Amino acid sequence: MGRLFGTSGVRGVVGKQITPQLVMDLGLSLAAQLGNSGTVVVGRDPRTSSDMLEGSLISGLLSGGCEVCRLGVVPTPVVSFAVRMLRAKAGAMITASHNPPEYNGVKLFDASGMAYTPVLEGRIERIYSGRKWRQVNWDEIGAVEELNVLPDYVGTLAGRVQLTKEYKVVVDCGNGAASVVAPLLLREVGCKVISLNAQPDGLFPGRPLEPSPENLTELCRVVRSTEADLGIAHDGDADRVVVVDEKGVVVPGDEILALVAAEHLNREGDKMVTTVDASNVVEEVVGGRGGKVIRTKVGDVSVAVEIRRHEASCGGEPCGAWIFPRFGMAPDGLLGALKVLELLNTSGKRMSELLAPLPDYYMLREKVPCPEDRKAKVMALVSKRLMKEFSEATGVLRVDGIRVNLLDGWVLVRASGTEPYIRVTVEARTPGRAEEILRKATKSVKRLL
């Protein structure tokens, strides 16, 4: 399948890019990278292929001399938590996050619970491509231990939150891994909980896994009809959180990220990290609290790397993947939900009241289909094309893809690291201008295909 790792681990369609053999060899490669010893924590989401791939991954790890702690169906952040709690050498989560049910993949975590960096992924790539692993003798094969860490995880998170009000919360688990934790966790912190799609089901019949506004219409309706204080939605592995206000309106990811990050600042001049595709509202809100915003590549591992480098208080992506380093270095949608509740509780306001003063920005996103083998060529040519199309540009940022800053907005074009698309994101002060920028940008990209 060419290069193994994308923006968020190894991912693809089962039976095509992702096969049992590939995952077993990946397990062998991970074992070799770990020195053919040590414990690896393994979790999975409820996809129909996850059981099969879990067996393949564990087979590779065991035959490579590692011990395995099998968690079963858990959210991705629970794997990160368990690695730290058990002092394991590494962790592996079998998931394709928000992708459709035919997809699956593997995401790796180091001993600190942070996702593997590109440097570590490169080591795995070299071992895998060169088949430089070692299968141990029969009397050195590792063992498997079954462990339920969910009570520890829930207890630890719940112990960090003290709410003075009973909030009514509607939580949409999307039939994903959040189903085994989210309703319980919210009740544990004193919320009155209404659950939607809270039965793990690998076909994900309740709604598509991407927690986008068009996929959350039922959640919005239930929030309104039950007069709930808040709606919460998670993706397939619950490393992301999306918020619905008390009026049943999906809160833009950039705006809730800005509010939570500003609330989380420890002191004047404190830093937070976000990605190149986040709205300018983040700078305005965080800067208004005396904080500094650092931008990096799209992907939670890029955010985590910069958080560590700059000793930032928090970081996150507009998609709802937020990292709070005082708890852990992996994105945690369940912890994110608690942070939103803390924000409501501290402010004493409704979500819509917190959002009302924020400046108006209009962001549009479009995915342009592009075969994997064409991405590099398109991205090599798109910079010159965009600069010609937007001659009024005030600056260019090449942290990830190309972002062209304009007097009244910006446009970002980047290749997806998880899907066969070129992603186009634009922002402007008015809807009409945003549509105009998007139209010109997508036209430029399509001309290159």
TrEMBL record:
**Entry-linked Gene3D superfamilies:** Alpha-D-Glucose-1,6-Bisphosphate, subunit A, domain 3, Alpha-D-phosphohexomutase, C-terminal domain
What are the residue boundaries of the Alpha-D-phosphohexomutase C-terminal domain, all occurrences included?
384-438
**Top-rank taxon, per record:** Archaea
Alphabetized InterPro entries for the sequence:
A-D-PHexomutase_a/b/a-I, A-D-PHexomutase_a/b/a-I/II/III, A-D-PHexomutase_a/b/a-II, A-D-PHexomutase_a/b/a-III, A-D-PHexomutase_C, A-D-PHexomutase_C_sf, Alpha-D-phosphohexomutase_SF, GlmM_arc-type
Tell me which Gene Ontology terms the entry assigns under biological process: carbohydrate metabolic process
Q: Which cofactor does it need?
A: Mg(2+)
Q: Which GO terms describe its molecular function?
A: metal ion binding; phosphoglucosamine mutase activity
Occurrences of domain Alpha-D-phosphohexomutase alpha/beta/alpha (ranges):
3-130, 153-248, 253-359
Which keywords does this Swiss-Prot/TrEMBL entry list?
A: Isomerase, Magnesium, Metal-binding, Phosphoprotein
Could you say which protein family the record assigns here?
A: Belongs to the phosphohexose mutase family.
Listed NCBIfam families: Arch_GlmM
Its protein name is: Phosphoglucosamine mutase
Q: What is the taxonomic lineage of the source species?
A: Archaea, Methanobacteriati, Candidatus Hadarchaeota, Candidatus Hadarchaeia, Candidatus Hadarchaeales
